[in-house]
Structure formats: C-alpha cells, structure tokens
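Render this sequence as a predicted structure.
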Amino acid sequence: MRLDRGNTAEAQRCFQKALDVARRQQAKLFELRAAVSLGRLWRGQGRGVEARQLVAGVHDWFTEGFSLPDLQDAREFLDSAGHDD
C-alpha cells in the first residue's frame, strides 16, 4: 500500500505524537515501537540515515529483554537500515 503525500504527512504527525507521549511517560518500549514505525516511514522517504539514528537512539537504551518481539523488530530494522545508507 502506497500512501499519498497527505496521508504520509498525517502518519508522520501521528508517529511523532506517539513518540513524544511515550517519551513524556518514560515508556521506553512504546517509544521504541513509535520510533520503528516512524523510521520505516522515513526510510520509505529516502531518509534512511535519520531513521536508523532515531531507532538506534532508543534501542541502545535497552540492556536486557532482547528476546521481546519489539526489540527483535527494532534489531531487524537496524540491520536492514544499515544497507540503505
């Protein structure tokens, strides 16, 4: 599914809001989830370096729990985003 420019802008606003709320609530797992979602959108816009930096900044906070699906998803994103540069 391809988003048109208006939907893409709205999606970006929603992901950014989710990221901001998670940060205010210090909910790191939700912050990671929002970062990966926003990162995927950015990568699709050719902003792979920014996307990887965003996700890595949150992912690197974690010191355990790497078997959790959200952390595995983020790791897969980071591994694949390294090929977009």
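Summary. The chain is about 75% helix and 0% strand. The longest helix spans residues 5-24.
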